[in-house]
């Protein structure tokens, strides 16, 4: 679901802002899109209500990331016995004018798949960014305030 729609309270809005700042700390020249999904009925059917989706756009095609934009989807699970949602996965996909070039998923082996892959240094930055997302959203103490 679009990050702008998920920012329904101060706590979630702060965490979304933190995710944006984390990404910008690794890739400072990006422009952020908190509404990467269109608001039409067909797209709405595909949207995961238990996710926060953010688009990051570069001023041109990044050869280090083999993409012009990256879509990041943070997936959550609400345990009925817990008072907070837990981040259970992050998926990132890089796109350029030819379509999706690569995908990274933390659900499986944290590996890249696709027609091309980011340069090793940029790949390491993306994985670090994903790890930081887990630290941010799975800090239990933050949810109990």
Notable traits:
single chain; 145 residues; globular
Please describe what this structure looks like.
A 6-stranded antiparallel β-sheet has the order 1-2-3-4-5-6, covered by helices on one side. The C terminus is likely disordered. It is built from 5 helices and 6 strands. The chain has one domain. By secondary structure, the protein is of the alpha+beta class.
Q: In summary, what is this structure?
A:
With 145 residues, this protein is of the alpha+beta class. The protein has helices spanning 3-6, 10-26, 41-46, 120-137, 140-143, and strands spanning 31-33, 51-62, 67-78, 85-96, 99-105, 112-113.
- Kindly estimate the percentage of residues that lie in beta strands according to DSSP: 25-35%
How many beta strands in the DSSP annotation? 6
Number of domains as seen in the coordinates: 1
Cα-atom radius of gyration: 15 Å
Unreliable stretches covering 5 or more consecutive residues: 140-145
Counted by DSSP, the helix tally is: 5
Strands ordered across the widest β-sheet: 1-2-3-4-5-6
Oligomer: single chain
Distance between the termini: 25 Å
Biggest β-sheet description: 6 strands, antiparallel
**What is the residue-mean pLDDT, rounded to a whole number?**
85
Helix share bin? 25-40%
Shape: globular
Which structural class fits the helix and strand makeup?
Answer: alpha+beta
What's the SSE pattern? HHEHEEEEEHH
Draw up the topology in text.
Layout: H1 3-6, H2 10-26, E1 31-33, H3 41-46, E2 51-62, E3 67-78, E4 85-96, E5 99-105, E6 112-113, H4 120-137, H5 140-143
Antiparallel strand pairs: 1-2, 2-3, 3-4, 4-5, 5-6
Helix pairs in contact: 2-4
